[in-house]
Amino acid sequence: MDILRKCPRAVPLSADLFERLLAVGAVVLLIPAGAAIMRGRAEWSQVQPAVWAHLLTVLAALVLTPFILLRRRGDGRHRTLGRLWVVAMLAAAITSLFVRDQAGVWRLSPIHALSALVLIQVPLIWWAGRTGRVVLHRHCVRGVVLGALLITGFFTFPFNRLLGRWLIP
To answer: Which of 19, 25, 62, 160 has the most CB atoms within 10 Å of its CB?
Structure first.
């Protein structure tokens, strides 16, 4: 498969339109998330530690995403920011497994399948970047940012979920 091969030719190191849109999406998602967190101050003490850990790791990944996607790739700073993003994403996936519903009951849900996917994809992202498989690396990053950060992040607001309740009481 071509996507698994090391890239023999120069690959553009700048962000394309899709990556710029993903970066904008991360910033746009941070705004209501930050607003919701600030509006929910009165309930902060009632939030489970696992929820706080999950929320903080997701926010860290969201903050890092535009910097990684929009700046030059392949240098030491890109690798350092990428490692931090990998740790944040893995921590977000792991902490999501400990989040319970409002009644304190732990239930498997479709979101747990996404957590499992992130636990597979994120190490693949790291490995692909580390071994020079730039095309695979780029495809996987785009997929995880779109699916695990942006689409999933959007769904933290409706359906009477915590950030949605805090944002629109």
So the answer is: 62
Residue 33 to residue 61: CA distance in whole angstroms: 13
Rounded to whole angstroms, the Cα distance separating 7 from 135 reads 7
Separate counts of helices (H) and strands (E) for the chain: 7, 0
The structure's pTM equals 0.89
Give the tens place of pLDDT for each residue, 1-49: 556 666 555 566 789 999 999 999 999 999 999 999 999 999 999 999 9
End-to-end CA distance of the chain: 50
Q: Which of 80, 27, 36, 73 is nearest to 55 (CA)?
A: 36
Domains of the chain: total = 1
Match 């409706």 to its residue by tokens: 158
Residue 76, in any domain of the structure: yes
